[in-house]
Design goal:
This protein has three domains: about 1-120, no CATH class; about 165-210, no CATH class; about 230-440, 3-Layer(aba) Sandwich (Rossmann fold), CATH 3.40.50. It is about 50% helix and about 15% strand. It contains 18 helices and eleven strands. The strands form two sheets. An eight-stranded mixed β-sheet has the order 6-5-7-4-8-9-10-11, with helices on both faces.
């Protein structure tokens, strides 16, 4: 095998020289730019006469040997062709005019040689391809699903961030347009009033009023939204059940109401019934209160027993029923409500007990837990332990629930009052002024000492 160098003005001129001197079956080894133009190194097996061309098998074998020394092993194996396969000649690739660049020539010659060396499609078993595709498809599908899930998660995060930013911009625009209303709404929210109620109430603020007048107007408007029942439990006859979560003060509240009723109508007109069979000494505690007050105390294990007891006490003016305290997600709560609903001789009025110092969501879920039964009102307890009263007021307003009584201590029967809307709003405003405002808080108690 011999190698010869050709130099032409351009690629076409150099290729024409190779074709004219060595024939169309010469093998191009390399090309590069030189000062005079393009230099091409071509290889041929033996000197070729003008009317003689080397055989295809010899050119193929020489081309395979040369490619193995200049190309990676993988490309050499792909370009080696069987002896009985015809290797495309240079003239067949470039034609009469030749390509514009050597890269196109090499790509065409390599692809043609690979096609000649490649086995036919029908020679490869179809089962191998299907098995390979079946083996790789689940992996690719799982990876695609994971990628799509990641993209969805990122898009959701971006959407949340954009919504937060847009809402902040809207709030800023609203604050600029109505600074007084925004300030008053922030004060109501500081009292514990929910954002929806605060924005709704503030929208009715007169534009010509100053800050103090507008604040007093809002407090009166909030008081008008609070519903109360008055002293309905003591003034009306019948059976009353107090329901609510554990620890809200149901038993103590029943004792206070029973003592007030005994003072007004006499102890013989009042009776206490407990259906709490879960808490230890529940009946004994209620029996102790009944002994002090002087009224009868009964215990009902189930709905039938409760119905019988209510029939026996049908001549009493007021029958107060103490229930067991269950959490909002406790399945036993439904069973207890069924016990109260499955009666035959009396209509039981139900009042829910809520701690005034509880969180807004806790009170909201408490009311939702008793939505299967009709509530005639609510009683707010532990006002003496809360630092904000707006949450309880907001929940009562949002659920259209009337407030009957409020309790603010453990004394029986002194620490219970009939609910009054003006009193509740006034108490909420005082708590906000005492604990909610920054200049009345105790978060920087050592500021003066540090300044000195």
């Amino acid at each position: 095998m011999k190698i010869k160098r050709f130099i032409g003005r351009d690629m076409r001129d150099a290729l024409n020289q190779v074709k004219h001197e060595l024939g169309g079956e010469a093998v191009i080894m390399s090309n590069k730019k030189v000062a005079d133009g393009i230099e091409i190194v071509a290889a041929y097996d033996q000197p070729v006469a003008q009317n003689e061309t080397p055989s295809a098998s010899k050119v193929a074998s020489q081309y395979a040997k040369t490619a193995s020394t200049t190309m990676p092993q993988q490309q050499t194996a792909q370009r080696q062709a069987p002896a009985n396969k015809k290797v495309p000649s240079l003239s067949e690739i470039i034609g009469d005019s030749g390509p514009d660049s050597l890269r196109e020539l090499l790509e065409k010659q390599g692809s043609a040689t690979n096609n000649a060396a490649k086995p036919k499609q029908h020679s490869v078993p179809h089962t191998t391809n299907s098995a390979t595709s079946n083996a790789t498809s689940p992996i690719n599908t799982a990876q695609d699903k994971d990628a799509i899930a990641d993209i969805k998660h990122e898009l959701n995060e971006l959407r949340n961030v954009l919504q937060f930013q847009v809402s902040g911009l809207l709030k800023q625009d609203k604050h600029r347009a109505h600074p007084l209303q925004s300030y008053l709404a922030s004060r109501l929210e500081g009292m514990g009033i929910s954002t929806g109620i605060a924005e709704d109430v503030v929208s009715y603020t007169p534009e010509e009023s100053d800050e103090r007048q507008a604040w007093l107007f809002l407090l009166k408007l909030m008081a008008n939204r609070i519903q109360t029942t008055g002293n309905a439990i003591l003034e009306q006859r019948g059976a009353v059940a107090l329901v609510g979560p554990t620890g809200t003060g149901k038993t103590t509240t029943i004792a206070k109401l029973a003592a007030r009723a005994a003072q007004r109508y006499g102890a013989d007109q009042v009776a206490l019934v407990t259906i709490d069979s879960y808490r230890i000494a529940a009946y004994e505690q209620l029996a102790t209160y009944g002994k002090i007050i002087g009224c009868s105390v009964k215990k009902a294990q189930n709905a039938e027993k409760l119905s019988d007891i209510l029939f026996q006490l049908r001549n009493k003016r007021l029958v107060l029923i103490d229930t067991a305290g269950f959490g909002q997600r406790d399945s036993r709560l439904i069973k207890q409500l069924d016990t109260l609903n499955q009666h035959s001789c009396a209509t039981i009025k139900k009042y829910v007990i809520m701690q005034a110092n509880a969180q807004h969501k806790v009170m909201e879920h408490t009311i939702n837990a008793y939505k299967s039964t009709e509530l005639h009102g609510c009683i707010l307890t532990k006002l003496d332990e809360c630092y904000s009263l707006g949450e309880a007021i907001s929940v009562a307003v949002e659920h259209n629930l009337a407030i009957s009584y409020v309790t603010d201590g453990q004394r029986v029967p002194e620490d219970i009052k009939v609910a009054d809307a003006k009193y509740l709003i006034s108490a909420a405003a005082k708590l906000y002024k005492k604990y909610g405002l920054r200049h009345t808080g105790v978060e920087h108690s050592n500021t003066s000492a540090l300044a000195v």
